[in-house]
Amino acid sequence: MIERLKNWLVGYQKEETQKPGDEERMEVLKKGPMPRHVAMIMDGNGRWAQKRGLPRIAGHRAGMKTVRHITRVADDLGIEALTLYSFSTENWKRPKDEVNYLMGLPEEFLRTDLDELVRRNIRVGMVGREDELPDHTKRAIEGFKEGTKDNTGMILSFALNYGARSELIHATQRIIEDVQSGKMDKEGVSEALFDQYLYTANLPDPDLMIRTSGEVRISNFMLWQLAYSELWFTDELWPDFSRELFYQAIDDFQRRSRRYGAV
Ligand code: IPE
Ligand code: IPE
Ligand code: MG
Fold it and tell me: What family does this chain come from, according to its entry (predicted)?
């Protein structure tokens, strides 16, 4: 009985986001090379709200719904890792109310979405400086990590209080510590080792990076990891980013020729 109810719920949620033709579209995409790791700069929430005469936080609320939908699409496509840039180290410069609102979203998302994430076998993690977050935000992140730690499917990472420059400095400091304490020698510092000191140590480099809202910049996101990522930009604002656009991004990705400097 419970099993049937669960299946019905999963089916219901699928119907909510998938339209006729989506299965077929995904089958075609799945035949091509699928990015293992997709990273997204979720931008344009504020402008989405402003266009409607709403406060910026209404845009963040709408953006959270997109997070839910896009996570489902990524999972349905069989992507191994999805990383969502949610709050940068520079976003502390925003008005206090907006920052507080954003810091409350993980708790809300935990309440509303943990069950589905567990059902989907998704493991949730965070990249960024956790120690500087407010306690209630840290608790929500820990709740996600704890609640999904046994899951073996897609890794969903929230880049929260994330800044690539700060990440690189942090990694460098830890490497210096390990060299000074004799744990390793200077010659041991390779690209592969450096990777292990980043917040993304458990993740492959993003194959595809998507940014919404028409801005064509990186905004301090994964400067090291994006070295050979394919970049894809859309003018659509994050709350309007759709399943269809995600398919388009994957389709474009599959048409690109990744050469890594070779011919
Ligand atoms: C969301 O979009 C990104 C976050 C920092 C949460 P913005 O809040 O930057 O929206 P715009 O760019 O001002 O429209
Ligand atoms: C990048 O967006 C950070 C996030 C999406 C979390 P911003 O809106 O902060 O970037 P800029 O200020 O336009 O470069
Ligand atoms: Mg922005």
Answer: Belongs to the UPP synthase family.
**CATH for 62:** 3.40.1180.10
Question: Does the Cβ of 214 fall within 6 Å of ligand 2?
Answer: no
Task: Tell me the per-residue pLDDT of 3-33, one tens digit each, with 9 for 90 and over.
Answer: 666 555 554 444 456 888 999 999 999 999 9
Q: What percent of the chain has pLDDT over 70?
A: 94
CB distance 44 to ligand 1 below 6 Å: yes
Q: Would residue 23 count as lying in a domain? A: no
> What is the three-class DSSP state of 158?
strand
Range 81-119 burial, b when 16+ CB lie within 10 A, else e: bbbbbbbbbebeeeeeebeebbbbbbeebbeebbebbee
Q: Is 24 annotated as a binding residue?
A: no
pLDDT score for 188: 95
Residue of the CA atom closest to atom 5 of ligand 1: 87
**Annotated binding-site residue? 238:** no
Residue 189 domain-assigned (yes or no): no
**pLDDT tens sequence across 233-243:** 999 999 999 99
Asked, for residue 86, whether it belongs to a domain, the answer is: yes
Which of 84, 212, 215 is the pocket-test mutation for ligand 2 (most atoms within 8 Å of CB)?
A: 215
Overall domain count for the chain: 1
Whether the per-residue pLDDT at 208 is higher than 80: the answer is yes
In 10 A of CB 69, how many CB atoms?
Answer: 15
Its pTM stands at 0.94
**Ligand nearest 47 Cα, by number?**
1
Ligand nearest to the CA of 161: 2
